[in-house]
Amino acid sequence: MTIKQALRYGHNHLKNSDSPHLDSEVLLSFVMQKNKAFLYTHPEHTLTAKQTQQYKQYIHKRADDYPVAYITNTKSFYELDLYVDERVLIPRPETEIIIDHIRTTCTITPSTTIVDIGTGSGCVAISLARLFPDTQVIASDISKNALAVTRKNIHRHNIHNITVLHGHLWEPIKAHLTTLPEHLIIIANLPYLDDQDIKHTLRHEPSLALYATQEGRALYAELVMQLSQSIPTAQIHLFCEIDPPQYEPLAKTVQTIFPTISISQLPDLHNHTRYLTAQKLYE
Questions:
Q1: CB 127 within 8 A of CB 99
Q2: What dihedral angle (degrees, nearest 10) is formed by the CA atoms of 71, 72, 74, 79?
Q3: CATH, domain range 3-64
Q4: Alpha carbons 160 and 158: distance in angstroms, whole number
Q5: What is the pTM of this model?
Q6: Domain-by-domain residue ranges, the chain?
Q7: How far is C-alpha 39 from the geometric centre of its chain's CA atoms?
Q8: What does the DSSP 8-state code read for residue 46?
Q9: Same fold for the domain at 3-64 and the one at 77-280?
Q10: From the CB of residue 69, how many other CB atoms can be counted at a distance below 10 Å?
Q11: What is d(CA 165, CA 144) in angstroms, rounded to the nearest whole number?
């Protein structure tokens, strides 16, 4: 099988994919350990029998909705090459929005503490730790398996200002902080899909990181309740990644639980509400 034939084979077997050309290119490059330019400048190059077998196996896995990132164990996020596998949710491009927003609108000082709840691969925590090396970052998750991936990525990118904690929502952070920081930035990327509406195309990703009760809003409501009871005098900025239709009902819930907090929304690149943002100044 030549490179040209392999790409055609991939395209023909990935017609249900949103990106059959790209998927074929990435998987063939991965198998051959060659870049995209090589594929198109050497279309008659012949794959070895082992490469052909491996490539076809990967194409068939992808045809079954298995994510390319899990096959290659790599996902790019905010100029980082992150290790990912089935223990963590694959970082999405829309999550990068919050990194830019915090970088350009929040005042970050050494007295600021950044908390990433539901860190998964560590994409948000590591990105912010690189941007603000003098600021303490905390990355937490309820999944010990996910935190093993977090630590792998922290080590891969030689980050030294992240503390990794295991536990449920705010509980491990509360136990860890002996004194309350002057300024808290909290990013929560919690499961927000409705557990009564399981997505077949997401079946290979960890359900623990995807689904929640109460139409996907339960964990955010619980987190805000914890925060309202634990940090009554701190200055906080809270960013919650959500499904766009959840904004109005979740905003009402947050305002009821935490009346002193100011709520707004942050759109994604398609102008859909992707984040509920909340700010509370000193009382």
A1: yes
A2: -130
A3: 1.10.8.10
A4: 7
A5: 0.92
A6: 3-64, 77-280
A7: 30
A8: B
A9: no
A10: 20
A11: 9
Residue 82's identity, in one-letter code, is: L
Q: How many CA atoms lie within 13 A of 23 on its CB side?
A: 28
**What is the phi/psi pair of residue 139, to 5°?**
-120, 125
Q: Which amino acid is at 106?
A: C
Q: What is the DSSP letter of 101?
A: H
The first and second tokens of residue 78, run together, are: 């905010």
Answer yes or no: are the C-beta atoms of 24 and 7 closer than 8 Å.
yes
CATH topology of domain 77-280: Rossmann fold (3.40.50)
* Cα first-last separation, the chain: 69
Helix (H) or strand (E) holding 194: strand 193-194
Residue 99 has which token pair?
């990194």
Instruction: Show the tokens assigned to 233.
Output: 């005098």
Tokens (6 digits) for 54: 């491996």
Distances (CA, A) of 273 to 4, 164, 173: 42, 29, 28
Neighbours of 209 (CB within 10 A): 22
Amino acid type, 123? C
Tokens of 170: 């705010």
Question: Could you list the pLDDT tens digit for every one of the 283 residues in the chain?
Answer: 999 999 999 999 998 888 999 999 999 999 999 999 999 999 999 999 999 999 999 999 999 999 999 999 999 999 999 999 999 999 999 899 999 999 998 989 888 999 999 999 999 999 999 999 999 999 999 999 999 999 999 999 999 999 999 999 999 999 999 888 888 999 999 998 888 888 888 889 998 888 888 888 899 999 999 988 887 667 889 999 999 999 999 999 888 988 888 999 999 888 999 999 998 865 5
Whole-number Å distance between alpha carbons of 264 and 69: 33
